[in-house]
Amino acid sequence: MSVAEVGIKDLLESGVHFGHQTRRWNPRMARFIHGEHAGLHVIDLLQTVELLKAAQGFVSDLAQRGGTVLFVGTKRQSQDAIRHAAESARMPYVNQRWSPGLLTNFQTSSRRIKTLNDLEQLESQGQLELLPSQERIARRKELAKLQINLGGVKDLRRTPDAVFVIDVNTEKIAVEEARKLRIPVVALTDTNVDPDGVEYVIPGNDDSIRSCSLIAHAVGDAAASGALAWYEAEEARRAREAAEREQRAAEEAARREAEDARRLEAEEQSAAAAQGQEAQAQAEAAAAAEQAAPAAETTPESGEATSAPQESNA
């Protein structure tokens, strides 16, 4: 899956070049501003194209290594775009309300996520219906609240490897938490925000639904492309490991079969040798018995011969 390139024409059609009013700007965004028109700053889309490519490359490489990108956009213009882009890439997202401490206090957040998953499981199994009415109402209220705040991150098992943000001012807490944990931040930055602390700046309009959707899906497609490559590599690795396990099992079975055959052959040879020795012993015993029998017969006759002359002398 290749990452779709976003050109200047796409950016223009989506209004990405429109900045804020000139009196509501942040001087630290000056290097990304092309000029002004009708009291509005105009963003330099040549830089936007290059910086967006760099951000896409970073996100794609990260996802290709099995990394996770958290998509964040809670303002109305970006909520749907964030959800669609994240879900298409199988990435976590926050599009309703940022829960303070979601990243910096992830241990507590993990417990709340587990509670959400447990309640959803009870709801799907119909177990909540068996609870007393007051407890059932309380559990469902808790479930609804957790779904709003944590529904997009219910599959998050560890802190993300990167955070994509639309509107740094609105998502100030999320950006600060990411910076504390040294998590790279990719952000759509308008002319009224401070880009410092954002590793991958994408200059553009963060107040337009079309602009937010275009940038979010561009980043989401890059994440999906990298994730698909990672999934394919993982499947190939699992298949290779399964084949190796089967080969080792077959070799082990062949080795054991050969050992059993050798052991059986040795036992048969040992039994044959024992039978041969037993037969030889029986033959020797029979021969000895045959030799002893004539000697026993001649001994009494010689006794009678000696007694006869004695009788004659008498």
UniProtKB/TrEMBL annotation:
Q: Does the keyword Ribosomal protein apply?
A: yes
What does the UniProt keyword field contain? Ribonucleoprotein, Ribosomal protein
Region (Disordered) residue ranges read 242-314
Compositionally biased region (Low complexity): 269-308
Q: Which Gene3D superfamilies match?
A: Glucose-6-phosphate isomerase like protein, domain 1, Helix hairpin bin
Entry GO CC:
ribosome
Q: Which domain of life is it from?
A: Bacteria
Question: Where along the chain is composition biased (Basic and acidic residues)?
Answer: 242-266
Q: Which InterPro entries match?
A: Ribosomal_uS2, Ribosomal_uS2_bac/mit/plastid, Ribosomal_uS2_CS, Ribosomal_uS2_flav_dom_sf
Family per similarity comment? Belongs to the universal ribosomal protein uS2 family.
Q: Please name the PANTHER family in this protein's record.
A: 30S RIBOSOMAL PROTEIN S2 PROKARYOTIC AND ORGANELLAR (PTHR12534), SMALL RIBOSOMAL SUBUNIT PROTEIN US2M (PTHR12534:SF0)
Name of this protein:
Small ribosomal subunit protein uS2
Q: Which gene encodes it?
A: rpsB
